[in-house]
Amino acid sequence: MAETHFVRDYADLMQNLLNDYDKKRGRMGGSGSGNWCRANSKTLTEHCCSIDVRQLSRWGYLKPWLRYPLKWNNGSNIIIETIPEAIELIYSISRNEQPSEDIRITVPLSWSYCNYGGKRPWFTCPGKGCGRRVAKLYLTGKYFLCRHCHNLTYSSQRQAKAFRLLDKAQKICRKLGADNCNDLVTTSKPKGMHWRTYEGLVEEAQKAEDESLYEMYQKLK
């Protein structure tokens, strides 16, 4: 049977996970480049500057021919100009110590009627080939687009994925007669199970547990 490495201490396991992901997926380096977790996992919506059409509507900021600034706690800011049935976003982007680039994009607006009366505003995502009606746009890279175009995820989705992976690992462990992956080191192979099958299940359980802890680690960052 191939040697299997089990880590009992949570801190050691987490360090082991970081090393594994570093080796398998690569670390980005150099001036202005992102760190390994940003390069290899979905960015959270909570980590991006966002514009909420519902909030702008409540403030009365969707009326045509307005011009106003919008600022975020991290110091970022843009100018919004409103025109009939759309808003225009005006801002500058500077990355990797390059000269700043002026951006101006038009975001169409649409409206849907509510069952209780009134109308609800929507952004129409300006992403190429998208056109989704969305309540929020997020800035990642150069443009404000919907979370689907930017491949973003909610923190709650990441947490749910972590629990699904952990549940998968525990189900496999119970099938092998153990409560968790750590207990497999002291648990004998089930009678009648081929070694190749057993080793494959152990590897699958370990992988699911490692990925679960990685997702939890990302959630806590």
Description:
This protein has 221 residues and is an alpha+beta fold. The protein has two domains: 47-145, no CATH class; 154-220, no CATH class. It contains five helices and nine strands; from the N terminus they run ααβαββββββββαα. It has helices at residues 10-25, 36-40, 53-58, 155-175, 195-220, and strands at 49-52, 67-71, 77-83, 86-93, 101-113, 119-124, 133-134, 136-140, 143-145. The strands form two sheets. Strands 2-3-4-5-6-7 form a six-stranded antiparallel beta sheet. A three-stranded antiparallel beta sheet has the order 1-8-9. A hairpin with a 5-residue loop joins strand 5 (101-113) and strand 6 (119-124). The longest helix has 26 residues, at 195-220. The chain starts with 9 loop residues before the first helix and ends with a helix. Mean pLDDT is 76; it is low at 1-40.
